[in-house]
Design a protein that fits this description.
Helices cover 42% and strands 18% of the residues. It contains 13 helices and 10 strands.
Length: 339
C-alpha cells in the first residue's frame, strides 16, 4: 500500500511537469555562435522564456548564410541568432525576415539597431579583425611585430601567414570587406594580391588562424579580437594587434524568420535578446556589446581595438558580398585549405 501511495504521489508531482515539457515550443535557431556559447545561450533563453525549447543548428557564418539562402523557398529555421548582421541584411532584402521591433530596443546603441524600415534585425555584439602574431616564431626569422596591415607583406613572413576563407567564415569576409572599404577597392585588391604571396592557407574557420599562430604552427594568424585575447591569456607568446590604419568588423545579430509557425514564442525570445540581462551574457564572450554601459574587457585585449574600427557600411557588405566573394575566389582559391 505504501508503494502504491508513493507511486501515486510521484505521478501527481511529475505529471504536470511532464505535461509542461511536452507543451514547450521547439524553436529551431540557425547560428554561428561558437560551440562553447551554445549551452549558456540556450540556458539564458529558456530561463527567460520557459515555454520555449531552443534547438540549435550551428555552423560557420558562411555555411549558415548559404544554407539559409538555399532554403529560402522552404525555410526550416524559426529564428537566426549569432550571425553577421551583413548576412541578415541580405535576408532582409529578400523578404525572408519578419517585421518585428523587440521591446526596449530603443535603449541599445544606434549601431546595433536596424536603421531602415521595416525593422527586422537587432545587433548583439561586435567582432573586430586583429593579427595574432607569435613573437617567439618571429624572432627566429627576425620578423618584426606588425603595427599596420602593410607590415604583413614583409618577405620574412612568406608562407607564414594564415587567414580565414571569406566564403566560409564571417571573420574572413569582415577582413576582406574592411580592406576594400578602408583602402578603397583598387588598393584593397592590390594589397590582397601581395598578401596572397605570404599566405600559407585560407582556413575554413574564424578562430583557427589565431589558434595555429598560438601553437607556433604559423607566425601570423588573422582572426578576431576576443580569440586573440583568449589565446594570449592561455600563455601563448602572442602579440594581438588591431592595425593602426583601421580594421574591418561586423556585428552579430538576430531576427525572426518570416515563415515561422511560432511567431509569439519567437517574439518573446527577440524581446529577451534586447534586454540588459541578455547583453550581460553577450559580454562574457565579447568586449563590445549593444547595451550601453555593459562591457567586460578581458585580460590581454588588444589596445585600441574599438578605436581602430573603420567606418563600416554593413549595407555595402551585404550588397556586395556575392561580387566580392566571386572575385576573391577567382584570385586566391588555389590556397584554400581542404574542407
Amino acid at each position: 500500500m505504501k508503494a502504491l501511495g508513493l507511486l501515486a504521489l510521484t505521478l501527481a508531482l511529475t505529471g504536470p511537469m511532464a505535461a509542461q515539457a511536452a507543451e514547450r515550443t521547439r524553436l529551431t535557431i540557425y547560428t554561428a555562435l561558437e560551440n562553447d556559447q551554445l549551452g549558456p545561450f540556450k540556458a539564458g533563453i529558456e530561463r527567460a522564456v520557459p515555454e520555449v525549447e531552443v534547438v540549435w543548428v550551428r555552423d560557420s557564418t558562411g555555411i549558415i548564410t548559404a544554407r539559409f539562402l538555399a532554403e529560402k523557398d522552404n525555410p526550416r529555421a524559426d529564428m537566426v541568432m549569432g550571425l553577421a548582421a551583413s548576412s541578415l541584411l541580405m535576408f532582409e532584402k529578400q523578404g525572408l525576415l519578419a517585421t518585428y521591433e523587440p521591446k526596449g530596443v530603443e535603449a541599445l546603441k544606434p549601431a546595433f539597431r536596424d536603421a531602415k524600415a521595416p525593422y527586422t534585425w537587432t545587433g548583439t555584439d561586435a567582432s573586430i579583425g586583429v593579427i595574432c602574431f607569435n613573437t617567439a616564431e618571429a624572432e627566429k626569422d627576425k620578423a618584426r611585430t606588425p603595427a599596420r596591415w602593410a607590415d604583413l607583406l614583409a618577405p620574412e613572413l612568406k608562407g607564414k601567414v594564415v587567414m580565414p576563407h571569406p566564403a566560409s567564415s564571417g571573420t574572413g569576409y569582415l577582413l576582406v570587406a574592411g580592406w576594400l572599404q578602408g583602402m578603397g577597392e583598387e588598393s584593397g585588391w592590390a594589397y590582397m594580391d601581395r598578401l596572397h604571396d605570404n599566405i600559407a592557407a585560407y582556413l575554413h574557420s574564424g578562430s583557427a588562424p589565431c589558434v595555429q599562430a598560438a601553437r607556433g604552427e604559423r607566425t601570423a594568424g588573422l582572426s578576431l579580437d576576443m580569440r586573440g585575447a583568449a589565446e594570449k591569456t592561455k600563455g601563448a607568446p602572442l602579440a594581438v594587434i588591431a592595425p593602426a590604419d583601421g580594421t574591418g568588423w561586423d556585428e552579430e545579430a538576430y531576427a525572426i524568420v518570416a515563415t515561422t509557425k511560432h511567431m509569439d514564442a519567437a517574439r518573446k525570445v527577440a524581446d529577451w535578446g534586447a534586454t540588459k540581462a541578455a547583453n550581460e551574457l553577450y559580454a562574457k564572450s565579447y568586449a563590445v556589446v549593444a547595451y550601453p554601459g555593459v562591457a567586460t574587457v578581458p585580460a590581454n585585449y588588444p589596445a585600441g581595438a574599438e578605436a581602430a574600427m573603420i567606418k563600416n557600411d554593413l549595407g555595402w557588405m551585404a550588397d556586395n558580398r556575392e561580387r566580392v566573394l566571386a572575385e576573391w575566389s577567382r584570385r586566391y582559391e588555389a590556397k584554400a585549405a581542404k574542407k
